[in-house]
């Protein structure tokens, strides 16, 4: 049977569908460079659309066929609510404009650019926005952001343009060195009496929100995360006392990941962690203003989430620190600069004379903060 092929090639100018909707029932529709196709209402694709131009849709987008993203852009631009059912395919450049909420019911991969101009892109059915390695984010505001999970991948700096539908809460992860790194970020707002718990070194933790960062591949142990501060005026009296806190479980106590920088204010600002990202949950918190260190001298190498490493609270505030650990005969078994309670920490494994698991017993530590203060010494017990 001979197949009918319907091809539209727009070399220049603008083409407007005068009908209320456009149904492609199996044809090949090709938009060439510099061409513009505007659909005033819904577009249902059961064939193939090849987009190297610009496609504007003011109604629902139902893709039951093939959408070849090419080098073109697709713009959802209505002031009314729009539904995007993209069948887990990719857009090269996605523009979100108008004022109506755009609800997407399947994953959308952004290959080149996401331009958030003036409306909200909202997830349904757990769908997420997937940012390709080279994807660029433009815009982002209280009026235009993503409500739902966002996935990022590859080396470089990641931007997650997330919000709750009315307020923008962008998160950045910088210095991703692992080319295979892949993670998904989700915003969670606290409600119905839900509270986060913090360890004794934290004086306060956010009562507003937290973020969940799920690692799928690679590592972020050399990266830092920047969290927004929005309406966090009750968190601390001094912005310098705000830190990023983390926990592996939402029911466990959050611990400090330090503060390598802040901006703005407690009502409209941000805080960046000091050390690498190794946990799943993150929130803004406050720490004692004096940044005094506290040493926990019990280490259990059982990897059970309790005392898994030699913890020196607030050490991240002293990036020039030096930590050494000795056995009972005075032999140095561990030494490191920039101890951070994360990727640079002692968990019962020597790094002097080979990476060997040490036998249980009593060891001795030496901590130099690198700020001219007196060296701290004492003992720790490895179980």
Approximately what portion of the residues adopt beta-strand conformation? over 45%
Main structural class: mainly beta
Cα-to-Cα separation, first versus last residue: 76 Å
Helix % is under 10%
- Which ranges are low-confidence, i.e. pLDDT below 50, for 5 or more consecutive residues? 1-19
Number of helices: 0
Whole-number mean pLDDT: 90
Question: Please, what is the oligomeric state?
Answer: single chain
Shape: elongated
**Into how many domains do the coordinates divide?**
3
Strand segment tally:
37
Structure description:
The structure is a single chain. This protein has strands at residues 14-16, 22-24, 28-31, 36-39, 43-45, 48-51, 54-57, 61-63, 66-68, 73-76, 82-85, 90-96, 102-104, 108-116, 121-123, 128-131, 136-139, 146-147, 149-153, 156-160, 171-176, 182-189, 202-205, 209-217, 224-230, 242-247, 255-256, 261-264, 268-272, 281-287, 294-296, 298-299, 311-313, 322-326, 332-337, 361-368, 376-382. The strands form six sheets. It has a 15-stranded mixed sheet that branches. It is elongated and about 85 Å long. It has 383 residues and is mainly beta. It contains no helices and 37 strands. It folds into three domains: 1-147; 183-291, no CATH class; 294-382, Immunoglobulin-like, CATH 2.60.40. 38% of the residues are buried. Helices cover 0% and strands 45% of the residues.
């Amino acid at each position: 049977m001979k197949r009918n092929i319907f091809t539209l090639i727009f070399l220049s100018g603008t083409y407007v569908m005068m009908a209320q909707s456009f149904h492609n029932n199996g044809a090949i529709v090709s938009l060439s460079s510099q061409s513009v196709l505007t659909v005033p209402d819904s577009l249902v694709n059961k064939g193939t659309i090849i987009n190297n131009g610009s496609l504007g849709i003011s109604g629902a987008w139902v893709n039951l066929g093939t959408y070849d993203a090419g080098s073109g852009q697709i713009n959802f631009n209505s002031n009314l609510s729009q539904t995007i059912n993209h069948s887990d395919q990719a857009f090269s450049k996605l523009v979100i404009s108008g004022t109506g909420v755009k609800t997407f019911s399947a994953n959308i991969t952004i290959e080149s650019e996401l331009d958030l101009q003036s409306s909200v892109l909202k997830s349904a059915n757990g769908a997420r926005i997937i940012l390709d390695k080279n994807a660029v984010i433009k815009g982002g505001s209280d009026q235009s952001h993503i409500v739902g999970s966002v996935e990022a991948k590859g080396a470089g700096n990641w931007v997650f343009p997330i919000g709750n539908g009315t307020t923008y809460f962008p998160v950045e992860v910088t210095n991703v060195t692992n080319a295979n790194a892949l993670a998904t970020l989700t915003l969670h707002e606290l409600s119905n009496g839900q509270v986060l718990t913090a360890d004794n070194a934290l004086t306060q933790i956010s009562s507003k929100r937290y973020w969940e960062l799920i690692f799928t591949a690679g590592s972020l142990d050399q990266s830092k995360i920047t969290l927004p501060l929005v309406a966090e005026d009750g968190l601390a009296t001094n912005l310098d006392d705000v830190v990023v806190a983390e926990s592996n479980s939402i029911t466990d106590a959050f611990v400090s990941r330090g503060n390598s920088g802040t901006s703005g204010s407690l009502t409209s600002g941000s805080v960046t962690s000091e050390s690498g990202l190794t946990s799943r949950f993150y929130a803004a918190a406050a720490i004692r203003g004096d940044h005094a260190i506290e040493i926990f001298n019990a280490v259990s190498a059982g990897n059970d989430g309790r005392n898994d490493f030699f913890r020196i609270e607030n050490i991240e505030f002293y990036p020039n620190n030096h930590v050494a650990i000795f056995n009972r005969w005075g032999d140095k078994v561990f030494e490191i600069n920039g101890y951070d309670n994360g990727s640079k920490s002692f968990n019962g494994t020597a790094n002097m004379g080979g990476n060997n698991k040490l036998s249980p017993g009593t060891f001795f530590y030496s901590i130099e903060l690198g700020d001219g203060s007196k060296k701290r010494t004492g003992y720790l017990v490895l179980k």
